[in-house]
Structures are given as structure tokens and as C-alpha cells.
Automatic annotation (TrEMBL):
<protein>
    <submittedName>
        <fullName>Uncharacterized protein</fullName>
    </submittedName>
</protein>
<feature type="coiled-coil region">
    <location>
        <begin position="463"/>
        <end position="544"/>
    </location>
</feature>
<feature type="coiled-coil region">
    <location>
        <begin position="350"/>
        <end position="434"/>
    </location>
</feature>
<feature type="coiled-coil region">
    <location>
        <begin position="198"/>
        <end position="302"/>
    </location>
</feature>
<keyword id="KW-0175">Coiled coil</keyword>
């Protein structure tokens, strides 16, 4: 985007006022005082701003009437005074113009704010890009590491970077909002300024017209009164001296009138020239304004596009952050599983190998695409070179045809000349100047032959030059072919190496898959054995529980017998054991006893 041209507020206001004044006064008849009016107005504005720093602000008198201090024939006559309403009008105009200056200064400060916001935005985007690049290092470290503490540290670092990115994105969004708000303010201020300036200039022009009317009416009254005095003085007796003095006065007045007329003509010419210049300036200013509007629209479009891009980037970053968190959780789970069993390691290795294979395949596809692009580019270069060579051949053929046509034309001209010579010989056979005419014709023929030889030489040189250009272009085409051939060979070698790497990676993957399948089979067998052992133990535990319950029942019955008889016999115990189905325990008890 092009830089906005900064101007002082005085220049902008002057240009706008001149623009509005010249637009209104193009079709109207320009009075004699208009040039002086604009000139004095510019001087007053410049003096106002020069004296502004010293604290002595002068009121801007935009309209100064150039009334006749002396009339045409009266010595002293004061110019017409302004009424109280016109003076109040001028004071109000001064206040409005001061407000316009303040608005221009605020508009300029808004442009500077926009520049600062855009610079801050660029800095924040650069910081975000750098932080995104920093995320890649801990990711690679997490992929290569297996320790839980290191992964937790790297996860905390990634979370900090993500928070920093979110803050930077929020800052850029807020800066974009402020930029849009400032642009809206600038558009509103510019519209208000245009309306105020147009209204002020219209009122100033009307006031100037009214003052000019008053001035010219006073001049007409003075001339009418003077004519009446002259008509009254004719009847009087006038001496010769008075008559001579009046004649001298009239002559001086005529000279003054002629001088004023000439000056008015020159002023009108100058004004016409200046109006043309002002029109050109107005056209240039309108073009600049259109460019500025176009820049503002482009700026708004860029801001909208950047907002959409930032929103998409923020969404992508959030998705990546969530993805990274999921990956971290998955990695933690995989590490826990790896501590318990070794099967998790094999799964990780398989995943890593698959990723490497996919990456190598993508690189191979990219290199194949590059090779195809290079081949297409080489073919296009060959086609362009062939087309250029064909064009050069066509030009050579065209020149040869033109040479043939020119030679035919020259031959026809020579034949015509011969015919003319024969006719002249017949006509001048009986004249005395026969020898002179023959000599002139021979010289003309020689001159024509020389011109034909020179043109043949030029055509020969042009043909040689074209052939040299064709040879140079063919050499360039051969060089390009050789270069593209070397590039293709290098790409083919790289593709071969990548294919070998892919084959090696595929073999490693196949071996790992076989080992993992074996480990799975062994693990399945071990799990079946463990399940069978667990079932056996459960059955044994159930049997022991049943026996213990029966023993407790026997013990309760023996307690009842003891309470009833006061003693316990072994036969009672055996009978109870047989009833409960505890024959094995009876045998063990007999052995112990």
C-alpha cells in the first residue's frame, strides 16, 4: 500500500477553498477584484499562522473591499462601511475556521495513530510467528523422549507459549477494531469538513459580490454627479486658462482610464491563466482524493482479510493446542502402559515408523511433482525457443521476399527508364543536346546501380545478424537443456535414494510387525495359562470355604452336645463329620490323634 502524503492543515484548507471557489466561478463572469480577493485571503491566512506562535492571533478578514479612496473626480471620499450584521458574520467565520484547523490537526493525529497501530500489529504478528516456531522444538523433544518429567515440563512450556499466542492475537484484534474506528472517524470528519468549507466559501463569495456591487454603485453615482457638474459648467463663461487646465485634467483622466483598462485586460489574462492552473490543481487534487479513497477501501479490505486470516489462524492455533493436549494425554497414557508392559514400546515404534514412511512418501511425491514441473518448464522453454526460431525464420523469409520485390521493382524501374530513354532518344534525335542527356541518364543509371548494391549489402548484413541471433538462441536453448538435464538427473538420484530409504523403512516395519505378532501370540498364551490357574485357585478357595462352613457347623453342634452331656466323645465327632461329608478331614484327624 502506498504511503499517505501528509500536508499541513493550512495547505489542505487553502487547496479546498480554492477548489470550491474555482468550481463556482468557472461559468460566471470573473470580476476584476477576484484575483486580489484570493491573494489577500491567502496572505491573511499565512499571517494568522505565522503570528499564532507569538500569541498575537489576528482576526481573519476574508473580505477587504477595495473601495475608491478617491473617486474619479472627487479628491477625498471614504469607502462604504460594513453593517453590524456583516461584521458578526465575519466573526462567526473566524470561529468556524479555527474549528476547522483543530479538526484537521486531529485528523492528522488519527493518521499517525493508525500507523502506530499497524506497526504494533506487525510486531505482534512477528512475535506470534516466532512463538509458533518455538513450539516445534519441545514437540520434537517430546516425540524423542520417554521420561514423564521431561514431557510434563515441555507440556507446561507449550501451554505458556499458547497463552502468549492467545494474548498476542487478542491484541491484534483490538488494534484492528481501533483502526476501523479511526477510519470511520476520519471519513465522518472529512465529510463534515467538506460541507463546512463549501458553505463558508459560498457565503464569502456572496459577501464579496455584494461589496463589489456597492463599490461600483458608488463609482457610478460619483460619475453621474460629475457629469451633471460638467453640464452645468458648460453654460458658464470659462477662461482659456481654466479651459486648458480642464483639458489637461481630462487627458490625465483618460490616460488613467486607458492604463486601468490595460491593467484590467492584463489582470483578466492573468486570471485566466491562474484559473487554468487552478483547474489543473483541482483535477490533480480530485485524483489524489480518489486515490486516497481507493487506498482507504483497500485498507479496509486488507483489515477484513487480515481479521478473517487472524480468526482462522486463532482457530487453527486453538485446534493445534487441543491436538497437542490430546497428544500429551495420549503420550502420558502410553508411558504408563509402557512401564507395565513392553508392548506399548512396540506400538510407539510402529507409529513412529509409519509416520516416517508417510513423511518419506510425501517427500517423494513432492520431488516427483518438482520433477514434473521441471520437465514441463523445460518443454515450455523448448517450445518458446522453437517458436522464436520459427519467427526469426519467418522474418528472414519476409526480408528475402522484400528483397526480391525490391529487386523486381528496381528492374521494372530500370526498364521504364530504358523506355523513357528510348523515347527521349527518338524525341531528341534532331536536337543538339543529345550528348548531355545521354550523360545524365548514364549517371542516373550508375547511381541506381550503386543504390541497389548498397541495399543488397544491407540486406546481407541483416540476414547475417539474424542468423547470429538464431545461433545464439539455439546455444542458449542447448545450455538450458543441459542444465535441466542435470537437474533431472539429480532429482532422479534423490528419488532413488528416497525409494531405497522407503524400502529399508518398509523392511524394518515388517520386522517390527512380525516381532509384535510373536509377542502378541506369547502374551495371549500366557494370558490363557494365567486364566486357567486363576480358575483352579478359585475352585480350591470355594471348596475350602465350604469345608470351613461345615467345620463351624460341627463345632456349633459339639458345643450344644457339651452343654447337654457335659463331655464330648470322638464317636460323636466322627458321626457329625460323616453327616457333613468330611471323610478326608476324619482321616487327617485320626492321624493327628
Amino acid at each position: 500500500m502506498d504511503k499517505i502524503r501528509e500536508k499541513s492543515p493550512t495547505e489542505i484548507i487553502l487547496e479546498r477553498k480554492l477548489l470550491t471557489a474555482s468550481k463556482e466561478s468557472i461559468d460566471e463572469e470573473i470580476p476584476n477584484t477576484k484575483y486580489n480577493f484570493f491573494k489577500e485571503k491567502a496572505k491573511e491566512i499565512i499571517d494568522f499562522h505565522l503570528n499564532e506562535d507569538n500569541g498575537s492571533r489576528k482576526t481573519l478578514n476574508y473580505i477587504e473591499t477595495q473601495g475608491l479612496k478617491r473617486s474619479m473626480f472627487k479628491e477625498e471620499e471614504e469607502p462604504p462601511k460594513l453593517s453590524s450584521s456583516s461584521q458578526r458574520h465575519l466573526k462567526n467565520k473566524n470561529i468556524q475556521i479555527n474549528e476547522l484547523f483543530q479538526n484537521e490537526i486531529s485528523g492528522q493525529s488519527d493518521f499517525l495513530k493508525i500507523k502506530d497501530l499497524m506497526t504494533k500489529q506487525n510486531i505482534s504478528l512477528e512475535n506470534a510467528i516466532e512463538s509458533i516456531k518455538k513450539i516445534k522444538k519441545p514437540l520434537t523433544a517430546i516425540r524423542s523422549s520417554n521420561s514423564k518429567d521431561y514431557t510434563n515440563d515441555q507440556a507446561s512450556e507449550i501451554e505458556e507459549i499458547a497463552l502468549y499466542l492467545s494474548k498476542e492475537i487478542e491484541k491484534t484484534a483490538s488494534s484492528f477494531r481501533e483502526v476501523l474506528r479511526l477510519i470511520e472517524q476520519l471519513s465522518k470528519i472529512s465529510a463534515l469538513e467538506k460541507a463546512d468549507i463549501k458553505r463558508a466559501m459560498k457565503e464569502d463569495m456572496e459577501a464579496a459580490k455584494n461589496k463589489a456591487k456597492i463599490k461600483y454603485e458608488n463609482q457610478l453615482k460619483a460619475i453621474i454627479e460629475h457629469n451633471k457638474e460638467l453640464s452645468s459648467n458648460k453654460r458658464r463663461s470659462i477662461s482659456e486658462d481654466d479651459h486648458n487646465e480642464k483639458i489637461a485634467q481630462l487627458q490625465s483622466s483618460l490616460k488613467k482610464l486607458t492604463e486601468s483598462y490595460n491593467e484590467s485586460i492584463e489582470n483578466s489574462k492573468r486570471k485566466n491563466i491562474e484559473t487554468n492552473k487552478l483547474q489543473n490543481k483541482i483535477i490533480s487534487l480530485n485524483e489524489e482524493i480518489e486515490h486516497l479513497h481507493a487506498d482507504i477501501e483497500n485498507f479496509q479490505a486488507i483489515i477484513k482479510s487480515q481479521q478473517s486470516v487472524d480468526s482462522s489462524q486463532s482457530a487453527n492455533l486453538r485446534a493445534e493446542i487441543n491436538y497437542m493436549r490430546d497428544m500429551l494425554n495420549k503420550s502420558k497414557k502410553e508411558l504408563e502402559i509402557s512401564r507395565k508392559t513392553d508392548t506399548g514400546k512396540l506400538a510407539k515404534l510402529e507409529v513412529m515408523k509409519e509416520r516416517e514412511i508417510e513423511r518419506l512418501k510425501s517427500e517423494a511425491k513432492i520431488l516427483e511433482n518438482q520433477l514434473q514441473d521441471a520437465l514441463n518448464h523445460m518443454r515450455k522453454g523448448d517450445e518458446l525457443a522453437r517458436a522464436e526460431i520459427q519467427d526469426l525464420h519467418r522474418e528472414v523469409r519476409r526480408l528475402e521476399e522484400e528483397n526480391k520485390l525490391n529487386s523486381q521493382r528496381y528492374k521494372e524501374d530500370i526498364e521504364n527508364l530504358h523506355r523513357e530513354l528510348q523515347e527521349k532518344d527518338k524525341q531528341l534525335h534532331f536536337e543538339r543536346e543529345k550528348l548531355i542527356t545521354e550523360i545524365d541518364i548514364k549517371e542516373e543509371l550508375k547511381r541506381i546501380h550503386l543504390e541497389l548494391e548498397e541495399k543488397d549489402k544491407q540486406l546481407y548484413l541483416d540476414r547475417e545478424r539474424l542468423m547470429e541471433e538464431i545461433d545464439a538462441k539455439e546455444e542458449l536453448r542447448h545450455k538450458q537443456k543441459n542444465e535441466w538435464g542435470e537437474i533431472c538427473d539429480n532429482l532422479i538420484l534423490e528419488i532413488k535414494t528416497l525409494k531405497e530409504q522407503l524400502n529399508g523403512a518398509c523392511e524394518d516395519n515388517r520386522k517390527l510387525i512380525e516381532e509384535s505378532a510373536r509377542d502378541r501370540q506369547n502374551r495371549i498364551q500366557d494370558e490363557t495359562k494365567i486364566k486357567s490357574q486363576k480358575e483352579k485357585l478359585r475352585d480350591k478357595l470355594r471348596e475350602q470355604d465350604m469345608e470351613l462352613r461345615k467345620f463351624w457347623e460341627v463345632v456349633k453342634e459339639l458345643q450344644q452336645i457339651n452343654t447337654a452331656k457335659g463331655k464330648i466323645d470322638f464317636n460323636d465327632i466322627r458321626s457329625l463329620m460323616n453327616v457333613k461329608g468330611l471323610a478326608r478331614q476324619i482321616k487327617r484327624a485320626q492321624k493327628t490323634f
